């Protein structure tokens, strides 16, 4: 086939499709392999001119009737991949004839022709990413969203973000306007999709303000952030993305996002990771909605004059009074720091991303860690009164941070009223249900989002929601408590010490539970297997959750309680298969090492 006129993005896609085509011929049973080059050359394209808008694409590769024997042609139709989009190119030739088997599912996101993002493109992007999360391995993600798409999308978004002030003023005073405020998402892509479905997509009359923490602790931080960037580019005056403390090098190196990028982009990961970091620096820090509601990630902050004062020794500075900052101070922050400074005028960046409310009056440093401040009800009252505001909505703290505390709400329904004064209220909002995806303890919390409506934006309503179904993946967290300076971390981070370096199931992999007694089964299979311990006894070994589970998701016609039983058994079978395969690989490696040592001893003996 001719490559004339294809740009780098499309050239790479064509080459990738050829690889897939050859792989299918080589791997599928019943396929003659006499002339595999024919199959690769049957990958063709439809003229872009036949389509109104440049949207996402799924590959359809002809099986080639001449290459499939009679047995292969008996495949049932419902085993074939249902592909909703056809791959198209500007200088294409014709339409690809048939779809792949579901086991070879492949989809690709192309950057739109003319660099013009449309609503259809964004909707198809979300569809593609959701399907890819269910049907492709993380290591194949770089083929679903190539780096050229990542770079172009980030560049387009940054050209908008860097023009926004530190505190964006959101004018939404229309009669039927409403604003959705969203808290921490933490890479929980499927919960974000559920939220957008429930609350409704951004529109002319519906604004969105996201309070940060898009990445880390979840498996799909890239997907979350890219989708939100796409919405920002499409509707820059309706979607506002603020920065959280996890949009930093410091946190992403410790809580999974860097490892996620490394897993999904391999050799290209360093450049992709740095591109994301550059984008994080352009994110605004706060918003004022309809002249009455202030939102940010962490909270209030000190005066820039106090932060810039270099006088005094450390002991004296520690005893100095910390004055509350204003929106004028906030406007002077140089936000182009990838990590939060610990001194100087840009300390305010640390404050606004890391600070937490307290029931004790005053503004003071946070003992036990270097980032952020504690501020009391008097500070909330003073800030609201000084700026003629009625409400503060911040995020940063989920159920883990509030676990065991008595001062504030436990965040299990996704939000909490922390201060309630004469001038207004302070809310904490958290939008990641069933949190964290990766961690030693999984909270069965709900996420929530706030709804602000015209004309009374200062009287929010909160909508709680449960988690969406999401595919199983292994965690990207790889933390070693001995190598971490815990004095710099808040309680929500200290709780998470997961590792993926061992074969055994990660401690944070919460296994499914099901009450089999409801079905009359009293000896249900467990996730524990007894293995010889080498000394005549046995040891109990926990079955790990598999990265991919065959048979899931289940058809929608299967109802409870049978649905839960099937899911439990499918996951257990997948875990056992994964355990057997891993142990067999380890045994073979061990035998090979022994044989190698034996050969070396034999060679030395002969010498």
From TrEMBL:
Keywords: Hydrolase, Manganese, Metal-binding. SUPFAM superfamilies: Metallo-dependent phosphatases (SSF56300). Residues 242-247 form the Serine/threonine specific protein phosphatases domain. Its EC number is 3.1.3.16. Its cofactor is Mn(2+). It catalyses: O-phospho-L-threonyl-[protein] + H2O = L-threonyl-[protein] + phosphate. This is Serine/threonine-protein phosphatase. The lineage of its organism: Eukaryota, Viridiplantae, Streptophyta, Embryophyta, Tracheophyta.
């Amino acid at each position: 086939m001719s490559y004339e006129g294809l740009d780098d993005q499309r050239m790479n896609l064509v080459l990738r499709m050829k690889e897939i085509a050859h792989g299918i011929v080589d791997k599928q049973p019943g396929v003659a392999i006499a002339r595999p080059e024919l199959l690769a050359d049957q990958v063709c394209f439809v003229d872009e001119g036949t389509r109104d808008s440049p949207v996402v694409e799924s590959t359809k590769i002809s099986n080639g009737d001449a290459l499939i024997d009679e047995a292969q042609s008996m495949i049932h139709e419902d085993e074939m991949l249902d592909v909703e989009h056809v791959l198209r190119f500007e200088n294409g030739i014709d339409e690809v004839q048939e779809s792949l088997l579901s086991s070879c599912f492949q989809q690709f996101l192309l950057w739109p022709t003319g660099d013009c993002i449309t609503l259809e493109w964004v909707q198809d992007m979300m569809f593609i990413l959701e399907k890819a999360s269910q049907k492709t391995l993380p290591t194949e993600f770089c083929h679903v969203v190539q780096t050229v798409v990542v770079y172009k999308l980030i560049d387009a978004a940054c050209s908008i973000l860097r023009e926004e002030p530190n505190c964006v003023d959101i004018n939404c005073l229309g009669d039927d306007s409403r604003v959705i405020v969203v808290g921490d998402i933490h890479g929980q892509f499927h919960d974000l999709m559920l939220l957008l479905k429930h609350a409704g997509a951004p529109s002319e009359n519906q604004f969105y303000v996201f309070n940060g923490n898009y990445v880390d602790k979840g498996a799909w931080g890239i997907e979350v952030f890219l989708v939100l960037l796409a919405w920002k580019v499409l509707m820059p005056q309706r979607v506002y993305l603020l920065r959280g403390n996890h949009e930093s090098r410091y946190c992403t190196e410790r809580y999974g996002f860097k490892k996620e990028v490394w897993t999904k982009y391999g050799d290209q990961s360093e450049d992709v990771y740095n591109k994301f970091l550059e984008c994080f620096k352009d994110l605004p820090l706060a918003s004022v909605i309809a002249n009455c509601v202030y939102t940010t990630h962490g909270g209030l902050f000190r005066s820039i004059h106090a932060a810039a004062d270099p006088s005094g020794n450390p002991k004296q500075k520690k005893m100095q009074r910390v004055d509350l900052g204003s929106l004028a101070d906030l406007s002077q922050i140089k936000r182009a720091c990838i990590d939060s400074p610990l001194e100087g005028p840009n300390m305010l960046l640390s404050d606004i991303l890391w600070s937490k409310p307290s029931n004790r009056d005053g503004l003071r440093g946070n003992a036990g860690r270097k980032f952020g401040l504690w501020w009391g009800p008097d500070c909330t009252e003073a800030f609201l009164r000084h700026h003629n505001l009625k409400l503060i909505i911040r995020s940063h703290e989920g159920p883990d941070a509030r676990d065991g505390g008595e001062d504030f709400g436990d965040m299990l329904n996704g939000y909490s009223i922390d201060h309630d004064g004469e001038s207004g209220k302070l809310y904490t909002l958290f939008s990641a249900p069933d949190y964290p995806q990766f961690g030693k303890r999984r909270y069965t919390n709900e996420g929530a989002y706030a709804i602000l409506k015209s004309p009374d934006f200062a009287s929010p309503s909160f909508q709680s929601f449960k988690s969406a179904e999401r595919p199983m993946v292994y965690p990207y967290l790889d933390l070693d408590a001995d190598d971490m300076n815990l004095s710099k971390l808040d309680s929500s981070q200290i709780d998470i010490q997961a590792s993926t370096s061992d074969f055994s199931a990660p401690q944070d992999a919460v296994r499914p539970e099901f009450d089999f007694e409801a079905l009359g089964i009293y000896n249900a299979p467990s996730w524990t297997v007894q293995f010889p311990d080498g000394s005549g006894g046995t040891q109990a070994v926990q079955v790990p959750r598999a990265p991919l589970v065959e048979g899931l998701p289940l058809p929608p016609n299967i109802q409870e309680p049978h649905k839960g039983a099937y899911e439990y058994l499918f996951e257990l079978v997948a875990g056992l298969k994964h355990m057997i395969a891993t142990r067999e690989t380890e045994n073979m490696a061990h035998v090979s090492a022994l044989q190698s040592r034996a050969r070396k001893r034999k060679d030395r003996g002969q010498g």
